[in-house]
Amino acid sequence: MERKTFININEEDFSYLVHESPVSKYNFVFFHATGFNAETYQILFEKLLSYFGDQISIYALDQRGHGLSKAKSDHTQLKSWDVFVDDGKEFIDSINGPVICSGHSMGSIVAAKISSLYPKKASHLFMIEPVLYSRWESLKFSLMSKLKINRKLDIASGAAKRRREFESLEHALASYKGRGAFTTWGEEWISSYLAGGTEETKDGNIQLTCAPEWESATFRSSSMDTWKYLKKIKVPSEVVYAAASHTYSPKARKGIDRLGKNWNSKCYDDATHFLPMEKSDSVTEDIIKYIKDFL
Q1: DSSP secondary structure code for residue 147 in this structure
Q2: Which pTM does this prediction carry?
Q3: Backbone phi, then psi, for 131, in 5-degree steps?
Q4: SS3 152
Q5: Which of 204, 277, 291, 212 is nearest to 28 (CA)?
Q6: Regarding beta strands 99-104 and 56-61, do their DSSP bridges make them parallel or antiparallel, or are they unpaired?
Q7: What is the dihedral of CA 279, 39, 289, 90, to 10 degrees?
């Protein structure tokens, strides 16, 4: 896939990966998870391209504060995921033709909200391991935030303490391999994450382009208003998730099943929140089957 730059209305630079086909009928637009970047999912995109070829175009955006995008990202000003949704809407508006919105974790919520707000453009939705709680759980978390009651969020605290700088890509790979969030990732996936999410420092080292403070703030500002968008979605929508997911609650899963016949779900018993990394072949097959039904 080729890397290009998208300039938004405020003249901010966003980097994205793309495989553009002049004969494609659909555009598959993917939004990454918090702290990651478009290139992290390169393996997934390559598998899709090896099957569909030029039948589809694929776009993957480095979201604000992530990857190689240079848009403003002041962590003290980040209060919700609305800014990611606004960026995503503007991005897909620059793409000609119908869009299959997809994403992982936070990215799947961004994709879902765009599908709700932009039904004439977003014709299909494929969510992977969404950050989604039931209506009551979401209301409780929202009230805690409004009352300034600190909700314990280990993942955000851990992100804030994340090491940012390394001597080299090799040192970073060795540091991540088999540890923490990367425990179940293959080396190729970690290498893709580093390739799309690091830059060289002035002293010759490398550092993560997603600042720990921004990643932490993104976790803490997670959307708790998603249901009002989901209930408006009438396009064919699919959710794949792990049984042991810590971001997609059992109550939320039941809520999705009640949304309508246009929704379909699939559960993986032996996976975690990093489903695309752990089950890339199976998840790719799920996406292929989903797209084949209407291509």
Answers
A1: T
A2: 0.95
A3: -90, 95
A4: coil
A5: 291
A6: unpaired
A7: 140
Q: What are 36-63's pLDDT values in tens digits?
A: 999 999 999 999 999 999 999 999 999 9
DSSP-assigned beta bridge partners for residue 199:
207
The token pair that represents 265 in the structure block: 């779900």
**Number of helical (H) and strand (E) elements in the chain, helices listed first:** 12, 11
Non-local (6+) Cβ contacts of 11 within 8 A are: none
Q: Are 284 and 48 in contact (CB under 8 A)?
A: yes
| C-alpha distances out from residue 279 to 45, 147, 273, Å | 14, 40, 11
Three-state SS at 122: strand
Q: What is the pLDDT of residues 74-103, one digit of tens each?
A: 999 999 999 999 999 999 999 999 999 999
Q: To the nearest whole percent, how much of the chain has pLDDT over 90?
A: 85
Residue type, 26: Y
Report yes or no: 267 and 242 within 8 Å, Cβ to Cβ.
yes
CA angle 72, 77, 79 (to 5 degrees): 115
What the block records as the tokens of 16 is 């994205």
DSSP string, 200-236: E-TTS-EEESS-HHHHHHHHHT--S-THHHHTT--S-
- The CA distance from 28 to 149, in Å, is 39
DSSP-derived 3-state class of residue 114: helix
The conformation of residue 248, written as its DSSP 8-state character, comes to B
Give me the amino acid identity at 189: W
Residue 141 reports pLDDT greater than 80? no
Count Cβ atoms within 10 A of the Cβ of residue 89 and give its class: 0-12 exposed, 13-18 middle, 19 or more buried. middle
Element housing 49 (H / E)? helix 42-52
